[in-house]
Specification:
One of its GO terms (molecular function) is ATP binding. InterPro entries: AAA+_ATPase, ABC_transporter-like_ATP-bd, ABC_transporter-like_CS, MacB-like_ATP-bd, P-loop_NTPase. This is ABC transporter ATP-binding protein YtrE. Belongs to the ABC transporter superfamily. There is one protein chain. The protein is α/β, with parallel strands linked by helices. The protein has one domain: P-loop containing nucleotide triphosphate hydrolases (Rossmann fold), CATH 3.40.50.300. Helix content is 34%, strand content 28%. It has helices at 48-55, 78-88, 104-115, 119-132, 148-160, 178-195, 206-209, and strands at residues 2-13, 20-32, 37-41, 63-68, 71-72, 89-93, 166-170, 198-203, 214-219, 222-226. It has a 6-stranded mixed sheet with strand order 6-7-8-3-9-10. The chain has a 4-stranded antiparallel sheet with strand order 2-1-4-5, covered by helices on one side. The longest helix is centred in the C-terminal third of the chain and has 18 residues, at 178-195. It is globular.
């Protein structure tokens, strides 16, 4: 599903012509199978978020190749990436990234609106999805009226609404207590089994990494394949 070859990324800091180059990722080779849960584990500053941003096209690699679902996306422009993300990706964030002025229903509906889905079809899809994540009775609630676990379920519903083949998750349980974390991880595993969605999760949490089919350890920009339980 995801193939990365010889990926390097360098941040440049300073005035043009006098930039300092800071290597962040070094020679990354990564292969993730369709339908797997893959966790990329590492300390803060190890390059995890940079790697996720490269996979999702929000930044461009300095060198190397990225192939997703058989498509070489390395040279995509912004429009091509925007269309590709809508067709292939869902996103789950540590801070939920919900829009505070929108209700649960409206937050989940938003990707469908961006995709140009008809209002009548949106209504059916959103109602079905809210029932799927157990929030059918919270459709009119705003994010600040929901618990952390409920907010993350809204985030997951929004990520699922376009039936993505891949979900990219950035510390998806980092803002949750241990009990709620367990519930969300169980839900991710359930979605993976039932829908065959490929999950790419970045984390520093060994509990999160324990649900992975494959783990990778990122240390100072170098990626190594690891075991399911990793000490960092």
């Amino acid at each position: 599903m995801i193939q990365i070859q010889a990926l390097d990324h360098v941040f440049k800091i300073g005035k043009k012509g006098r930039e300092n180059e800071i290597p962040v990722l070094k020679g990354i080779d990564l292969s993730i199978k369709r339908g797997d849960i893959a966790c990329i584990v590492g300390r803060s500053g190890s390059g995890k978020s940079t790697l996720l941003n490269l996979i999702s096209g929000y930044i461009t690699p300095t060198s190397g190749k990225i192939v997703i679902d058989g498509t070489d996306v390395t040279g995509f422009n912004e429009k091509e990436w925007a269309d590709f993300r809508l067709d292939h990706f869902g996103f789950i964030f540590q801070s939920f990234q919900l829009i505070g002025s929108l209700t649960t229903y409206e937050n989940v509906e938003l990707p469908l609106t961006l995709k140009g889905v008809k209002p009548s079809e949106r209504k059916v899809k959103v109602k079905e999805m809210l029932k799927r994540v157990g929030l059918e009775h919270h459709a009119g609630h705003y994010p600040n009226e929901l618990s952390g676990g409920q907010q993350q379920r809204v985030s997951i519903a929004r990520a699922l609404i376009l039936n993505p083949s891949i979900i990219l998750a950035d510390e998806p349980t980092g803002s949750l207590d241990s009990e709620t974390e367990g519930e969300i991880l169980a839900f991710i595993q359930q979605l993976n089994r039932e829908k065959g969605i490929t999950f790419v999760i970045i984390t520093h949490d060994d509990e999160v990494a324990s649900i992975a089919d494959t783990t990778f350890q990122l240390h100072d920009g170098v990626l190594k394949k690891g075991e399911q339980s990793i000490e960092i």
